[in-house]
Specification:
Chain lengths: 501, 501
């Protein structure tokens, strides 16, 4: 009898041992994966832990029922249709308050909210418009004029006509069409065409010097209100003009940019600043590129605090590959900081994703998009070894039809492996976004683990300063200042605890 | 003067050196990535190189213009709408002729083409149908009978009615709806509901013993014609029945399966065989699971050549996680080969993707789908170290709405890193496919590098035998036999060169 009891006891002990071994190995894997992911090396303070509990509670609440009903989960749906749901989210309101550091990949002429552009720029005196080949052209000048191609009219007259109503004008200065977005664009190629046309439409409107000053100021304002205190703009230098027809050169443009930024800093304590990455269109030949590099070098010497680097823009899939210019870039890489767009594509083995190889070999400090990185494991090794940040713009990738559901975004794999991600907004004004919080929401809710907490968000914010072009001393100061804002954010979150029950 | 010339010469030499350094580093990266990817360790023979040139020429030709017009690129579109384009492809016709080895993940009751099922089974004498809650039920029996729930009618009478026309019946025994597939299903949840209902509908029809025998034979036939000579079926054992109401137990089912496979082998030289992985639905409790494991163990002893292992099926996202049963599985893992479905999801940090951790810890020999693997880098390390194959079913993942464009499938990253991929077809009959070539096409054209050639395809075929459940000696023989078919395929491709110009 006692032998039987002993055997039963032994068996139970053995089962217990096997189970606890299994559980501890499993927990070890979960722990290891958490520590490998973005934010995994951050240890939260006690106060941060308290705030983290509040954050995770809000997050888990918003994730309730999403597996059964995907319509409850905004990151899986198109930004155009889910934006209003995001705005109702408590988690989004926390992200809006969170000091996010900087935005390192924003195209200047698509950076301001559509609301502001339509309400405060389109409505201005002296703006004229005409329609050519079904597209709107707009420009400021004093009196109506007609040329062979286009019949200019005051914009306020156009807005009264049914064919050129306000809704239509909005569709010309953004990608927003009424109705279902999937009916508006049937392919990446198609949406890119409209995208390029949109840049062309707004160009002449924004290059009017007084408008440009207001537009840039507003861009900074929208970032500032969204708790983004530093910006690096991609800019294909516009030729600013006056009503009387005066056209300015690049130098005047740089001075204007610098003046607005300085004024904004004076009027907004805590704001760190803004720089530009000169980014002409990639549709150029070798001679034009050499000219652009030379222009950049000259201007960078005279405006070292304004110009942070060089890039090429435009549709990468059909544009000139970086490889075509490797000799020019290679020669310049010791003197110019490159921040190349590379691998903004879902093709594999084509020139466009091979841009990733050249970007890394040409010493690119960061990579714009890098959507195809997971298809290039050798490049990924180099990215890790050289500590190159990846500029992730999730809403852009969705609107420009690389991916429809954020959960399928390849950066989910990069996040899991702890690559240095910086969240950017690319062209928020063109898709009805504003600031950086919408993109942060997509990344945090749709692309990070359900278990990711405050350590993940803290890492994103720190990355955006660490991988910025600020000189070392300014960067350190910026991180110290950010820490003060962060502490306050944590305190407020704890103080507002009741609001988030 | 000569000094100037000397300087120019020196500069040119230096530039030349820098350029050639750049190019050789770049080529080294391209070479390294090619050798890391699936197929990268294979060295082609001279004859294979000749065939590879033909293959790549056909491939490049079919890729012409796809970047400008995605409608020309089937893997980026839904299988329902692009299938007919694939069938016109020369590359597809090569893949059909290529000896593909085995299919290691096919659900038996969804394995046969819709055409055959509709033409040769639905039309049979004694099949009766009724409609309940808008769904078709079908069963074989001798005379019409009525019960409280359902009014049974001969299927040929139902087919004459508008509400239960042939098109509607097809929509009940497959996922194919007329018109645009994106209108038919608006979420993964929605398509999974129909998917589960479809299994329920066909179950009673296929469990009629004479039909089951024909169905299984036809499944093998369709694989054989598609140059697939070995199959492992996931099966939730049906209770076979006769017209007179006799119902058989599992043992009779196993014997019937074995008899059909043996007969098929005798009648089809070169065919290796078929096995089953017992896969009950994951909606069970611990007691039921223990019962299922015990049933499997008993049956496996009496049918060691028929039963290869154990798995659980059903929608993983809403089903019981493997972790709930880790004690039972852990106890059994030394005696039972597991082939778990795991991570068939785009969620991250949920129970469903954590199934990947348990699958690996429980010694799963292969992983079904593993769609979420890139989000689990620690699991990936273990998958590599333990050499666990990943059963990739690209069309299934598209139809069941994990991903719409194959180029975004996360297995692209696994392919780039050379993970052991086996291409499978999951449930071809439910989406109008047949055999394995459609899935191979999706993988080769949509998920591998543009530069991937014959070495990639050869690796896929070899993987499907290497990671099969064949005993070592049979596996070696199977690979030797496959080599003979492969040589013939290479010879034929070279002989038919003119056809592929």
């Amino acid at each position: 009898m006692w032998q039987n009891n002993f055997l039963i006891l032994l068996t139970l002990l053995l089962i217990n041992q096997v189970c606890s071994d299994y559980l501890s190995t499993r927990n070890e894997i979960l722990r290891a994966e958490k520590s490998m992911a973005v934010g995994g090396s951050i240890t939260l303070t006690n106060k941060e832990k308290e705030a983290n509990e509040i954050l995770l509670r809000v997050k888990q609440k918003e994730l309730q029922g999403v597996q059964e009903d995907i319509a409850k989960f905004p990151p899986a749906r198109h930004f155009f249709v889910m934006k209003k749901d995001v705005e109702k989210s408590k988690l989004f309101s926390i992200l809006q308050k969170l000091p996010k550091g900087g935005s390192l990949h924003t195209h200047l002429t698509a950076s301001v909210s559509l609301d502001y552009v339509f309400t405060s720029i389109v409505s201005r005196e002296n703006l004229h418009g005409c329609v050519i080949n079904g597209r709107l052209k707009v420009k400021f000048f004093e009196k109506g004029k007609t040329n062979n191609l286009c019949k200019w009219e005051p914009i306020k007259d156009l807005r009264k006509k049914q064919a050129t109503s306000d809704a239509w004008i909005k569709s010309q200065i953004s990608l927003i069409h009424e109705g279902n977005p999937s009916n508006a664009y049937n392919s990446a190629h198609n949406v890119w065409n409209t995208f390029i046309n949109t840049f062309a439409t707004v160009y002449d409107m924004l290059a009017y010097k007084p408008v440009f000053q207001d537009y840039l100021y507003q861009a900074l304002q929208e970032f500032y209100e969204d708790k983004v205190f530093y910006v690096e703009f991609r800019v294909n230098f516009p030729e600013l003009y006056e009503l009387n027809g005066t056209v300015y050169g690049y130098s005047e443009f740089l001075q204007t940019f610098s003046d607005v930024v300085q004024r904004f800093k004076r009027e907004h304590p805590g704001f760190i600043g803004a720089k530009m990455i000169y980014a002409p269109n990639r549709a150029l030949n070798a001679t034009q590129l050499e000219q652009a590099l030379s222009t950049y070098t000259t201007l960078q010497k005279s405006h070292p605090n304004v110009l942070a680097g060089f890039d090429l823009v435009g549709c990468e899939e059909i544009g000139t590959p970086l490889f075509n210019f490797y000799q020019q870039f290679n020669k310049a890489q010791n003197n110019i900081n490159f921040f190349f767009h590379a691998g903004e594509t879902n093709w594999y083995g084509f020139d466009v994703d091979k841009n990733l190889i050249d970007a890394v070999l040409l010493g690119s400090k960061r990579i714009g998009h890098g959507y195809a990185l997971l298809k290039h494991p050798k490049v990924l090794e180099m990215v890790k070894q050289k500590d190159i940040a990846i500029e992730l713009s999730p809403i852009s990738n969705q609107v420009l039809m690389l991916v429809d559901d954020s959960r399928n975004h390849p950066a989910t794999g990069l996040i899991a492996q702890g690559f240095p991600i910086v969240v950017c907004n690319d062209d928020p004004g063109f898709w009805g976004a504003k600031g950086l919080s919408y993109d942060w929401y997509m990344v945090y809710m749709g692309m990070a683990s359900k278990d990711a907490g405050l350590e993940f968000l803290k890492q994103l914010a720190l990355n955006s300063l660490k991988y910025s072009s600020l000189p070392e001393n300014e960067k350190n100061q910026a991180i110290r200042d950010w820490n003060v804002s962060w502490e306050k954010f944590i305190d407020d979150l704890i103080k507002d605890k009741a609001k988030y029950q």
